Amino acid sequence: MAPAEGTDPVLTDRLLLTPIGIEHSDDLERLYSDPLVDHWTGPWTPLDVRAWAQDMADRWASDGVGKWVAHDRSDGTLVGRGGLSRVVLGDKTVLEVGWVVRDELTGRGYASEIGRAALGWAATFFPDFPVVAFTEVHNLASVAVMRRLGLESSGVIYREGLVEGQPGLHARAPFALYRQVPTDRASP
C-alpha cells in the first residue's frame, strides 16, 4: 500500500516501514550489533549510528527519499531497515534499493518484502528515476533477493567494500549491479 505522502509510513502485509530519523537510533544500534549485519555493514559505534540516522532524516528532508526502519506489524518487533537512496552511478542519478534484516529473522522473506515496498514506492513518487541494487559479489543472499525482485544483472561496479577471503575494507571491491527492468521491456 503506497502512502499518501512520500514521507508517510508504508504498510506491507507484515511490516510497518517508517522513515528513519534520529529517534530510531536505539533500534538501529540493535540492528547493527547483529554479527551478520555487522559483517556486511559494520563496524558501527553508537555515534556512527546516530550520525547515520541523522543523515537519513536529512536525506528524507532534502532528497525526498531515504531508508525506513522496519517493524513487524503484529507485535512491533524490529525486523530491519531498508528503502531507497539517491546515488550517482557513473554520470546518472539513480535510486538504490537496499535492505538489512536482523540475523535471527533472515530467510523469512523480509528483505524481499522491504525491496518490493521500495520498488512500489519509487514507482509512485519517482517514476522517472532508474532503480538499481548492488552488493559485494559474494553476498549471495542479497543477490538472490535482487533476482526475486525481478532485477536484472547489469555487470560489476567497483567501490569501497569487502573482498571475499581478504580482511578489511578495500577501495575497489567488486559489487554485483542489478537494475530494474524498464516496464516497456517487461514481459506481459
UniProtKB/TrEMBL annotation:
Molecular functions (GO terms): acyltransferase activity, transferring groups other than amino-acyl groups
Keyword Transferase found: yes
N-acetyltransferase domain: residues covered: 15-184
InterPro entries: Acyl_CoA_acyltransferase, GNAT_dom, N-acetyltransferase
Superkingdom classification of source: Bacteria
Keyword field: Transferase
Transferase as UniProt keyword: yes
Protein name: N-acetyltransferase
Organism: Desertihabitans brevis
